[in-house]
Amino acid sequence: MRTRWKFMGAVLTVVMILTSLSMTVFADNPIETGSVQGQFSWELYMDGTMRVTAYTNHINLADISDGNVKSAVDRIEFDISQPASNPSTKYIRIEGRGVRAKELEYIGGENRYYESVSIYMLQNLKTIDFPEGAQIQSLVITGAAFDNIDFLDDLNVERIWLKDCDYLLNVSVPAKIKNSVIDECSCLEAATILSKDTQFFFPNCESLGSVSIPAGVTKIAYQAFEGCDSLIEVKLPTSVREIGTFAFYDSGLEKINIPDGVSKIEYGTFMKADLRKVKLPSSVKEIGPCSFMNNTRMTSINIPSGVTAIQYATFSGCASLRAIEIPDTVTVIGGRSFNGTGLTEVTIPSSVTRINRAAFNYNVDLTDVHMPASVKTMGIAAFEACYRLSDFYFEGSQEQFESITILDKDGKVSDENIYDACFTYSGSLYDDGINFHFIGDQGWKETEEGWRYYDENEKPVTGWLQIGEYWFFFNEDGIMQTGWVKNSGKWYFFGPNGAMKTGWVKDGGKWYYFKSNGEMATGWISDGGKWYYLKPSGEMATGWIQNGGKWYYLDSTGAMTVGWVKDGGKWYYLDSNGAMHTGWLEIDGNWYYFKSNGEMVTGWLKDGSKWYYLDSNGSMHTGWLEIDGKWYYLDTSSGVMVTGTKTIGAKTYEFGSNGVCKNP
């Protein structure tokens, strides 16, 4: 029994060995083979490996007719020995639509230089192994499934183009890459550029929301971020000097810093982006056609001084742009440059000589336009369909406006009148249409009768008019007045140029004063800390005047005097309010007396029943006084002349009723 089991064990062992050998043989041999004439041959193995031998530098695995074979492939060994052995082979391309391989390994072609290696539509491809030592100028991969580009780290490659690689989420472009295009990789969210020398492109990466651009980068290339819907903000390094055509076309860009040093915004650079507020540096001297077109939510942007032309459709479709300041360096406003914006008012600088076709058409909220007389040429439909346009101000005359050269759609001179050619449908919300104001037919005009001023309706002004800081007055015939004018019972004075006078005016050798409102002043006025008196006629008074029962003295300049005044050899004193003083007055400890006419008294003075003596300087005398050999005594405290008996010192004196001392 034991021998039997030993025999059975031996048989089983032999069977297992034979089975193992059979399986090994099966695995090393293809389960299916085939070829595509002139391109390649292939062998499919049990483990899903397809060995492809290329006869040319371009093969298409989609040409394998058996769909089951293509779906069974998990790994491709791509033998390029034969085309690689040909020195003229500069590129290798493999296409594989429908082939489900996840791995691709190149065999042969080691240490070769290729201008281009392309991998197209291997849609499940996750890993790639390249020939050792291969140098690749351009690597193009379309429709692969790898989620990173780490395989580039060990590859000697200058340029990459990855398209429709929808599993990529985050990439760092190696510094050795000179040119990187990552195109329509719909799930890519973040990208980092490691070298300032790498030229990079991310067109139509709709999920790209973050990009890191290193310092030293000088150019944002053509279409670099076109169609990047999720790219809200980009921070450009200060080294950037050029932003290429369509660089942010149709992106979600809301905010960007444009470094000082950028001199030109290229054609369509920000067209159909989502910018809100834009600050252009003073270094920008040119803004290209369509550069900000259809940024429908942009509310503000500046045009730097130095820009000479607003080019074709630059701001067309910027429906939220309500205001714009055009610098006085601009000479041409291009066709459709402000078509369909939200502008409500436009002031065109006097530097502009030409406004091209449809420049401002379909600005449905535009109400006011100010245009200089410098404009000599205008394209048709320049202000077409501006339905709310109510007032159009032209700095020249109506004749000048109607002689502006009109260009048709082909740029040829048209004989159509300017109103029909350039303002069709505009002002249609108003019964009277547009009010055209011809400033050249307004303002000052000299006529035979004198100067007139015409208002915005080209009518001569009558009555008062302020122009700048000056006021003018026009009579009922519209003639500007000069000299004296009486209006509403008030007198005014106008200079030879018609400007109303204020302050002091000398006319006919007499001085007058006019208030800040131009009205002639009368009575007392204060000016410069001094008081003056204007007669009822307005004439400035000098000398003595009586006002309110009091007398005042005004010097030769008309200023009211206070204190001592000598007039006609007589002295007077004016109180602090300017009124002439009468009667007794103490000045600096001395007493003086002024008559009813204000004249200062000297000599004997009888006031009431008492006598006083005023010295020659007018001051009241006290003590002993000798006059013509006679002695008098005036009380030292009151100044009253003494009569009768008075002891002075140790002696008693007798004074007569006339004050003369009898025993001096």
* Gyration radius over CA: 53 Å
Strand order in space, largest sheet = 4-6-8-10-11-13-15
Mean pLDDT across residues: 93
Which spans have pLDDT < 50 for at least 5 consecutive residues? 1-27
Q: State the end-to-end distance.
A: 193 Å
What is the structural class?
Answer: mainly beta
Shape type: elongated
Task: Report the total helices.
Answer: 5
Residue share in helix: under 10%
Q: Which range does the strand content fall in?
A: 35-45%
Count of extended strands:
56
What topology emerges from the helices and strands here?
Layout: H1 2-27, E1 32-36, E2 40-44, E3 49-54, E4 58-60, H2 67-72, E5 75-79, H3 81-85, E6 91-95, E7 103-107, E8 113-120, E9 127-129, E10 135-142, E11 156-163, E12 170-173, E13 179-183, E14 190-193, E15 199-201, E16 210-212, E17 219-220, E18 233-234, E19 242-243, E20 255-256, E21 264-265, E22 277-278, E23 286-287, E24 300-301, E25 309-310, E26 332-333, E27 345-347, E28 354-355, E29 368-371, E30 377-379, E31 391-394, H4 398-402, E32 405-407, E33 413-414, H5 418-422, E34 435-438, E35 443-446, E36 451-454, E37 463-467, E38 470-474, E39 483-487, E40 490-494, E41 503-507, E42 510-514, E43 523-527, E44 530-534, E45 543-547, E46 550-554, E47 563-567, E48 570-574, E49 583-587, E50 590-594, E51 603-607, E52 610-614, E53 623-627, E54 630-634, E55 644-648, E56 651-655
Parallel strand pairs: 3-5, 4-6, 5-7, 6-8, 7-9, 8-10, 10-11, 11-13, 12-14, 13-15, 14-16, 17-19, 18-20, 21-23, 22-24, 25-26, 26-28, 27-29, 28-30, 29-31, 30-32, 31-34
Antiparallel strand pairs: 1-2, 2-3, 32-33, 35-36, 37-38, 39-40, 41-42, 43-44, 45-46, 47-48, 49-50, 51-52, 53-54, 55-56
